[in-house]
Design brief:
Blueprint (H helix, E strand, L loop, with lengths): L1 H11 E9 L6 E9 L3 H10 L4 E3 L14 E4 L6 E5 L4 E5 L4 H10 L2 E2 L11 H6 L14 E7 L5 E5 L3 H6 L8 E8 L1 E2 L2 E10 H4 L3 H7 L2 E7 L4 E10 L17 H8 L9 H13 L4 E6 H5 L9 E8 L3 H13 L11 E6 L14 E8 L9 H12 L3 E2 L9 H7 L3 H11 L8 H6 L4
Parallel strand pairs: 2-4, 3-4
Antiparallel strand pairs: 1-2, 5-6, 6-10, 7-11, 8-9, 8-10, 12-14, 12-15, 13-14, 13-17, 16-18, 16-19, 17-18
Bound molecules: flavin-adenine dinucleotide (FAD).
The site of flavin-adenine dinucleotide (FAD) has 33 residues, from strand 3, helix 4 and strand 10.
Length: about 450
């Protein structure tokens, strides 16, 4: 039996003594064994037989949560759509399925998941583990009705909506176990009428709550040093409704190329960013647009020309205007070297009950801060300024993105932090699932 098990594991090893590199190359680690699993049994087998393990999807997290130890599991081949329940509008998948593949499959059935991130290349396992979210809805994990989790001893635990454990597992950084199969509750697909256009900060900021009530979709792209946001709203309409489609002037499609040229040297001469932002806003964010489509087709970016390094912070909806004004004042100062060269993405997440969710018990605003240059991210002043201001007001970082806060800070902003830590110790008494970053994050030995 032991011989058989050993042989079975060896069959799964795809690579030995290789190098793990995250998508934007900000993280690189050598590993001894990398398993590519395709079945739940293989997943259980590897977890059971290994002392320390991490697992990863498409490696698109900026935070150091996916690798960093000798043995790794690549879950991207564990990617089947297993079943549909037409009566209940549910779909069950293996956790390595790519979000875009899942969305295309359910759209073909006339279904949707009603709140989506602005990326379709991530795995479901990675997305859930890090609390991935969209706007004007809940975190993606809140649409999960049940799942199976491979525990540290390799056994399988079924968890259902309503179980208290579900509230701990929905966002759990892969620290309680490996998500194996996941069932999502979908909704009938709908068409959104999207309108986009520039507005001064004085105009969009006070209108947030009113707009959240009025629209089914709200997102604001805010470009520092311009005093303007680019407001995107969406309203559900009958798919047959005729709209005046207007995708703006043809040159808008060159925004990313222009942006790359404008900011080529802004990491060396940061002050040029303020001028470049004004040019970018005038050229690419000053016209209006109007179009329609499903949430997935009309609002999710399908391809990106380059990699990014991302940070994102969240704050209660009521506190957001105060935090925004403080942030704006700070980063507009010439003495502050936070020259932010990509619009900051302002989105909205409704409250939930998941222990490590940004929106635990509170409607929340999320604000992204992105750099094109992963290699210089350690010295990118904007990440530091944003973190300092959000933390001061009780904000929470996105688990999959860059931040420096650890146990001391996180225990102050998460009501359920100590409960999560206690549960983690109980479910993983030998710290099998902790890499050095998570060990520090949870202040474990
Ligand atoms: C360009 C870009 C756009 C983004 N847009 C958004 C956005 O709109 N909204 C948002 O919220 N986030 C966004 N993100 C963040 C992204 O959704 C997360 O970083 C996500 O975790 C990436 O998925 P992945 O498959 O690459 O996971 P990985 O980075 O490979 O892994 C992330 C974590 O998940 C764990 N994990 C992986 N599989 C499992 C599993 N089966 N069970 C348990 N744990 C598992 C890993 O161990 C690791 O801790 C964006 C990131 C990028 C790069």
């Amino acid at each position: 039996m032991l011989i058989f098990a050993t042989y079975f594991i060896q069959l799964m090893i795809q690579e030995k003594n290789g190098t793990w590199v995250s998508w934007n190359e900000n993280l690189t680690y050598n590993y001894e064994s990398l398993y590519k699993v395709t079945t739940e049994e293989e997943l259980q087998e590897v977890v059971e037989k290994t002392d320390k393990i991490r697992f990863f999807g498409t490696k698109q997290s900026s935070a150091d949560i996916a690798a960093g130890i000798e043995t790794l599991i690549d879950i991207t081949s564990y990617n089947k759509i297993l079943s549909y329940n037409d009566a209940e509008f549910t779909v069950t998948v293996q956790s390595g399925v790519i979000l875009g593949d899942l969305l295309e499959a359910i759209e073909a059935k006339g279904w949707c998941i009603p709140c989506l991130p602005d990326i379709n290349t991530i795995t479901i396992g990675g997305a859930l583990a890090t609390g991935t979210h969209g706007t004007s809805g809940k975190l993606l994990c809140e649409y999960v009705t049940n799942c199976t989790l491979v525990l540290a001893n390799g056994s399988l635990k079924k968890i259902e909506d309503g179980d208290e454990l579900m509230n701990a597992v929905r966002v759990s950084l892969g620290a309680l176990g490996v998500m194996s199969t996941i069932t999502f509750k979908c909704e009938p697909i709908y068409t959104l009428h999207i309108k986009e256009g520039p507005e001064s900060d004085a105009e969009w900021l006070p209108k947030i709550k009113e707009r959240l009530k009025k629209h089914d979709f709200l997102r604001i792209l805010w470009l520092p040093h311009t005093d303007k946001g680019y407001v995107i709203t969406g309203d559900k309409i009958d798919p047959k409704t005729k709209i005046k489609e207007d995708l703006g002037p043809d040159y808008l499609k060159h925004r990313r190329t222009a942006s790359k040229i404008l900011y080529k040297y802004s990491h060396i001469f940061p002050w040029t960013t303020a001028v470049a932002n004004k040019i970018l806003a005038k050229s690419f964010f000053s016209t209006t647009k109007e179009h329609k489509g499903s949430l997935y087709q009309a609002t999710v970016t399908k391809s990106r020309g380059s990699t990014l390094e991302l940070a994102e912070w969240t704050i209660g909806l009521d506190k957001f205007p105060l935090v925004f004004e403080e942030l704006k004042t700070e980063i507009n100062k010439w003495s502050n070297r936070s020259f932010i060269h990509i619009p900051m993405d302002v989105r909205f997440v409704y409250k939930d009950k998941s222990w490590l969710s940004y929106a635990y018990n509170e409607d929340t605003v999320t604000m992204g801060c992105v750099s094109r240059n992963a290699a210089t991210a350690d010295t990118y002043e904007a990440f530091k300024s944003v973190e300092k201001i959000f933390l001061k007001h009780g904000g929470k970082p996105h688990w999959g993105k860059r931040f420096t806060a650890k146990n001391a800070e996180l225990s102050k902003v998460y009501d359920k932090w100590e409960d999560f830590k206690a549960l983690r110790r109980k479910m993983d008494p030998t710290n099998k699932f902790l890499n050095p970053y998570l060990t520090q994050l949870f202040n474990e030995k």
